[in-house]
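Example record used in the benchmark description.
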Amino acid sequence: MLHYGWLLVILAAVGCPGEGQQEKRAMSPIINMKLDPRKKMITWNYQRNFTQHTCKIDTPDSPTSQSPQVRENDTYFCTFPNSVLHRGAILSVDIISDGYAFQEVLTFNNSGKEGSGAVNFSCLIYDIHFMNCSWSAGPAAPQDVQYHLYKWDTWFGEEAECSQYLSDPKGMHVGCHFNKLSEPNRMDNYFFLLNGTSCKTAIPFLDFTPFEALRIEKYNPPSNITVNYNGSNHIIQWDNPQTRFDVSSHMLYYELDLQKEGSSRDPVFQTGADTNVYLVPRADAAGENYLRMRVRHLRGHIWSEWSEALCFGFKKQGFDGTVAVIVLVVGVATALTLALMFLFKRYSVRQKLFPPIPQVKGELAGIFIQNAELAWYGNSPPDAQESGDMLVVQDTG
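Model output (structure tokens):
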């Protein structure tokens, strides 16, 4: 009996290590797994050695896997800058330790009232040094909602809240102005997170894939636009716009809007791979023409503003209102002058054909009158007031 008892003790002692190994194998070596939704980063620690590990994120867009990195304090991490979390995500870490596979899963939900988060977010770099971002309130946002925008220039850089918000008449933030961007770098990426607050309900945040600065710049219009005529063509020339980033000329895309009064033309498109010259045939330049231009990145969609309209071409001959009045006045004056000249000329000819008869003076009239006679009736002659001889004639029959 004694030997049998010792046997049970020995068997029990041998069985204990096996049970401990099973418990050890059932326990995951992954501990302290956490998610920073702003940086889209998961972190964790290991409580024993491992031989292989990976991390993964699964969103409504697509799953992404990568190899973890480690910090000096033996904290492992994975970042997913190109993933979007605001619609929810499942993150996981897979590891092989002591020949056994383990997986730790973390489910993330963007808490808050559906439809209350901001929508229609966009950003635009302009005039080389400035950037504006804008958004709209969600369709189900409460009246007291207020939005806050956070930005960082590099993935591991410090985030900063907008310092110059743009507000609507009710005081709600609907945009942000950045008046001093950092020194330009062709590989610049901007990271944004837009969340909201309300006393009535939680507001879900809005995050994005990185904004590639090169693709969100709005250029200034082409500069130094000139039109010259060489005898057969009008030659349009221009300079490339000044840009924030060093963009090759062949990556620029121009639109020339050529219009003529009373007609319509299709726009002309030209890439920067060609020289900045466009020839307008003489036949197409008849009359007054108007030119304006704009430009964008060949692979982008943001056009610059239009340049100021430039007038060129052969003007049609014609009279405006002022010229017509002047012509009318000159015509009337000319007609009057001709009429007067005609009248004067006609009077002169008549004078030559029918000269006036001169009148004889009274003193000379008596010289040419011979034997003047007076007639009277009765016995006495009339009184003669005038001196001179009087011959009396009597009837003797």
